[in-house]
Amino acid sequence: MSQESPHQTVLLQEAVEALAIKPAGTYVDGTFGRGGHSRAILQRLGTGGRLLAFDRDPQAVAMASGETDARLLVMHERFGDLADALRRAGCAVEQGIDGVLLDIGVSSPQLDEHARGFSFRGDAPLDMRMDTTQGETAAQWLGRASEQEITEVIRNYGEERFAFQIAKKIVAARGERSVATTGELAALVRQTVRTREPGQDAATRTFQALRIHINQELEQLALVLPQAMTVLKAGGRLVVISFHSLEDRIVKRFLRDEAAPDRLPRKLPLRAADLPPPRLRLIGKPVRASAAEIAANPRARSAIMRVAEKLARKAA
Predict the structure, then answer these.
(1) Which residues define the annotated binding site?
(2) Could you count the other beta carbons within 10 Å of the beta carbon of residue 269?
(3) Which domains does the chain have, with CATH numbers?
(4) 124-174: pLDDT as tens digits
(5) Could you tell me how far CA 314 lies from the centroid of its own chain?
(6) Using CA atoms, how far apart are residues 122 and 225, in angstroms rounded to an integer?
(7) pLDDT tens, 218-251?
(8) Binding residue ranges for S-adenosyl-L-methionine
């Protein structure tokens, strides 16, 4: 990793420790970002190790273009396409992966570069796409979506109780001209609601909701988790860092279900030993950033890391 970035990787040491890295192992960093986790993984890998890193953001992939470490391959891929992406990279998926790391959500460079359209601070085209090479921008979607669709997205993904009022305001504004910039959208939301939380901008929840929707973030997360279980070796680790309750709810439910035996009706004539065994075991308790890390990087405050290990299948 040859380039430096102001981006501060959250739970860096904790995540790498949780992977329990084997020097000759094969690992996946599903969210390369600016390479903080990848750099730390490479430091622990031996010459026979391999790291495959994904990112859907072409800027993040471009940042790694000068990397010469033969153990690292950075790919312009969505982590929701994990299994197919590994096959495209020539990885023997059937032999299994030793660890998968997912650092979910938007990165600091994406937020801080106003031209990307993620931030309600400043005024820039309302884009919000993590992959700027394809898909619909937030402005385009807001220009065609119905009032009900906008309400549902803001309510479900932003947990915003003023979702209906905001959607109504957006649709009304379209009668004059489209909502095309981050500044226009933020001003419109601020006119409609007052934040309930000290220090939080009134536009925070709406911007979060639109970003999640435009990038299908929760759908991608729901897709990658079962694929990770498939590609991991027995003893392989899955480490997931999420940043808000919607993400963590999906991760928590998936890990809980996979760590428990299949639930069948009580009165079925089956012994516990006859039930399919759990596919994984949970490793430790959920981990949050320390006070020192939060002081240095306030965006770490909402981070939560969950870890699981794939179990071996018992012989019949």
Answers:
(1) 35-37, 55, 79, 103, 110
(2) 5
(3) 12-108+217-310 (3.40.50.150), 134-214 (1.10.150.170)
(4) 999 999 999 999 999 999 999 999 999 999 999 999 999 999 999 999 999
(5) 32
(6) 35
(7) 999 999 999 999 999 999 999 999 999 999 999 9
(8) 35-37, 55, 79, 103, 110
